[in-house]
Amino acid sequence: MAVYYSHRNQARTYSVLLAQGVAMKNILLVISTIIITLFAHQTYLHSKTNDSNLGQPVAQQNTINPLLSQYIATKPNLFSEIAENSVNSIVNIASTKIIRYRNRSPFFNDPFFEHFFGRGQNPFGVPQERRQQSLGSGVIVSAEGHILTNNHVVANSDEITVRLTDQSEHKASVVGTDPHTDLALIKIKLPENFKPLPLGNSDNLRLAETVLAIGSPFGLGGTVTMGIVSAKGRANVGIVDYEDFIQTDAAINPGNSGGALLNLNGELIGINTAIYSKSGGYQGIGFAIPINMAKYVMEQLIKHGKVERGWLGLHYQDITADIAKALKLEKSSGVIVRALFENGPAAKAGFNPGDVIVKYNNKTLKNSGHLSKLLSETPVNSSIKFDILRDGKNKTISSKLMPLPESYKDQRQNLYQQGPRRSR
């Protein structure tokens, strides 16, 4: 019996412990339920707070572009309205160059004939001509029929035909070209129902601002694409002499050259010019000439038939981190003079290779693109004050901008390179 009772008492002990364990488990379950309920309630309240902010004005949400959200809220078809109001001001340009040559007879491949007439010469061949055609885009910028486009679209052309969105075709004349910025101005007799695009202010563009590109890629007129401003003041790309490009990821393809880049006010803020591509097609990097630069060129072409811009006569580059460290500069802003044109304005004014230009008429220079932009917009014969650093010391130099020589590119051979000279 002892053994039996002993087993019975042990069983009762296990029963008590089991009961206590079940009770503890229930307590923990209740506590967990309370915690989860409280957490869920807080999450719900937080989500309700966020939901209540969705309809608030953009300024209360601290977004980057409050006007854009307000536009979209009040005008859900904003992009469509801009495109539809602007597309008639974008034209297709077909330029034709006539190449004349003589048909070569196989008899003149004989060394005997080459001895008398010269290799490749054919005085008795039948005169023939071949038409080489290129396609591009343009933007109507005046009620008088002026159309802004790229120089490479119309350069050396014998015939220029402009096709409007109503499919009517008009012969165009060249008002003037500016290869240094790759801009050209042509003119047609504009029908009354076609209006010029309003010109914006490209200096007011912001990074990531939404833009629309309109042009005629591959001859497909009225093509609209959308993107953002990827970068501003893009220079040293190697496309033209004066570079201050707007970089965008709006799709730009062959045939878009000379087309429009628009802001969300429907204003022209750039002329699409080039793309960076390894395939020849769109890869997300396009370049447009800022309208402020194009406006100056356009005014000069209308007034003079060419661009009269000031020329300083020096080569310069951005200040890299290594250059700044070597020269013990606190900042990498400004430009460093690489070389001078012999007998140019800068050389006569006393510039030296190695000088660091920090200010242009009291304007702090950001980089080489900024200096190029200021130079391109400064009238001829203007006197400019430059603040420079030479051997770590501040110095002021004044130079008069001279007319840009016609043989500017040919004068590169007259550059003289030398190390920084110490002041005596």
Written overview of the protein:
With 424 residues, this protein is of the alpha+beta class. Helix content is 28%, strand content 31%. It contains ten helices and 22 strands. It has helices at residues 2-53, 58-61, 66-74, 78-86, 111-117, 151-154, 291-304, 321-326, 345-349, 368-376; strands at 90-102, 127-140, 146-150, 159-163, 169-171, 173-178, 183-187, 210-215, 223-234, 245-248, 260-262, 268-275, 286-290, 310-311, 314-318, 335-341, 356-360, 363-364, 383-390, 393-400, 402-403, 415-416. The strands form four sheets. Strands 5-4-1-2-3-7-6 form a seven-stranded antiparallel sheet. The longest helix is centred in the first third of the chain and has 52 residues, at 2-53. The chain starts with a helix and ends in an 8-residue tail after the last strand. The model is unreliable at 1-22, 43-64 and 409-424 (pLDDT under 50).
Straight-line N-to-C gap? 123 Å
Backbone CA Rg? 35 Å
Please work out how many helical segments DSSP would assign: 10
Average pLDDT reading: 80
How much β-strand is present in the residues? 25-35%
* Structural shape: globular
Structure at a glance:
With 424 residues, the chain is an alpha+beta fold.
List keywords for this structure.
disordered N terminus; alpha+beta; seven-stranded antiparallel beta sheet; 22 strands; 10 helices; globular; 424 residues
List the helices and strands and how they pair.
Layout: H1 2-53, H2 58-61, H3 66-74, H4 78-86, E1 90-102, H5 111-117, E2 127-140, E3 146-150, H6 151-154, E4 159-163, E5 169-171, E6 173-178, E7 183-187, E8 210-215, E9 223-234, E10 245-248, E11 260-262, E12 268-275, E13 286-290, H7 291-304, E14 310-311, E15 314-318, H8 321-326, E16 335-341, H9 345-349, E17 356-360, E18 363-364, H10 368-376, E19 383-390, E20 393-400, E21 402-403, E22 415-416
Antiparallel strand pairs: 1-2, 1-4, 2-3, 3-7, 4-5, 6-7, 8-9, 8-11, 9-10, 10-13, 11-12, 12-13, 14-21, 15-16, 16-17, 16-22, 17-18, 17-19, 19-20
